[in-house]
């Protein structure tokens, strides 16, 4: 029986013909990496291949590694198997991985979104026979509104807090979401302060993206300095001693799981903005249609529900287990909500 071009193993997604893994979760010899989030780019591989803009990102996170950078659409061959990287639109330098061998083409998306966020290279559909898609928000309840409307609301929220002489604390993951938020904050309202984790990652990305000026919060930062201004912080900072110097402050979080009623209250967040770096329901369906693929493999997220829907639409769809979904928190948070409570 012919082996599939890509197989799901206990180490990760494996291409037997090339003896290489895609986003493996256990140490391997050769790894092709889709993007910089920790669940997709892990420490311990002997050789890394990724998009060249992702090289400084994973080097910052992982330290000294043996890594090779590739351009969009550049074909590289390993043991007669052709590989190329194509924009995924998830975060800066995020890639889909195209694999071609003996007339068969598979595409692994990693994580992706179809909305152009203005800082990531926009998602491009890639024709293939088999499409491996995430399903983080694979429910009809998830339908994003255009990001310009979300940022209008975020800046209005900040302006209102400034008028009330309160500090605005906006939570976003340190790689990806934080920079997307930063890019569109209105500096006419006030200054942008950052948590160290966000400041450090933003400095890595500044050569690639034109961001507004930020000020790192240090031990010398006074509460009076922050009043009326906005602070970008990772979710882990919520409820920590670090945030106490922000008093009086108002908190907000930007994530797809804010779609669900009660999510903000359960996480003790004052305000929720629905903004995700993953596809919504329509984005997933449009992406799949755009590939022309007949076989769909659904991974992390609402994979069972989504694959069942695809089968009802005539696709040859199934699910596979992976160890993705931990880094940006949205997979775990979305799945923890009760279906039907939105």
TrEMBL record:
Organism: Pricia mediterranea
Membrane spanning residue stretches: none
Record protein name field: Ligase-associated DNA damage response exonuclease
InterPro entries (UniProt xref): MBL, RibonucZ/Hydroxyglut_hydro, Xnuc_lig_assoc
GO molecular function: exonuclease activity; ligase activity
EC id: 3.1.-.-
Residue numbers spanned by region Disordered: 320-342
Keywords, ordered alphabetically: Exonuclease, Hydrolase, Ligase, Nuclease
Residue ranges of coiled coil: none
Domain of life, per lineage: Bacteria
Enzyme class: hydrolase
């Amino acid at each position: 029986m012919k082996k599939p071009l890509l197989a799901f193993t206990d180490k990760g997604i494996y291409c037997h013909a090339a003896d290489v893994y895609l986003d493996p979760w256990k140490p391997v010899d050769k790894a092709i990496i889709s993007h910089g989030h920790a669940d997709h780019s892990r420490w311990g591989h002997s050789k890394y291949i990724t998009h060249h803009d992702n090289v400084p990102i994973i080097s910052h996170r992982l330290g000294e590694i043996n890594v090779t950078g590739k351009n969009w659409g550049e074909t590289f061959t390993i043991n007669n198997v052709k590989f190329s990287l194509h924009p995924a639109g998830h975060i800066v330098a995020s890639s889909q991985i195209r694999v071609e061998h003996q007339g068969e083409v598979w595409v692994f998306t990693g994580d992706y979104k179809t909305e152009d966020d203005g800082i990531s290279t926009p998602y491009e559909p890639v024709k293939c026979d088999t499409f491996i898609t995430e399903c983080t928000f694979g429910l009809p309840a998830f339908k994003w509104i255009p990001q310009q409307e979300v940022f209008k609301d975020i800046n209005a929220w900040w302006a209102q807090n400034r008028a009330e002489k309160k500090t605005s604390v906006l939570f976003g993951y340190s790689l990806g979401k934080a920079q997307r938020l930063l890019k569109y904050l209105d500096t006419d309202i006030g200054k942008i302060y950052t948590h160290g984790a966000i400041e450090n990652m933003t400095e890595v990305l500044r050569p690639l993206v034109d961001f507004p000026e930020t000020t790192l919060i240090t031990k010398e930062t006074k509460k009076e300095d922050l009043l009326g201004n906005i602070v970008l912080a990772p979710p882990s900072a919520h409820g920590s001693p670090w945030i106490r110097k922000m008093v009086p402050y108002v908190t907000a979080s930007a994530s797809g799981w804010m779609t669900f009623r009660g999510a903000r209250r359960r996480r003790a967040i004052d305000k929720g903005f629905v903004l995700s770096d993953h596809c919504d329901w329509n984005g997933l369906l449009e992406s799949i249609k755009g590939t022309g693929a007949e076989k769909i493999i659904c991974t992390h997220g609402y994979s069972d529900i989504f694959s069942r829907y695809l089968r009802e639409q005539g696709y040859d769809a199934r699910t596979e287990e992976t160890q993705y979904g931990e880094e940006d928190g949205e997979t775990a948070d979305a799945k923890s909500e009760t279906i039907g409570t939105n």
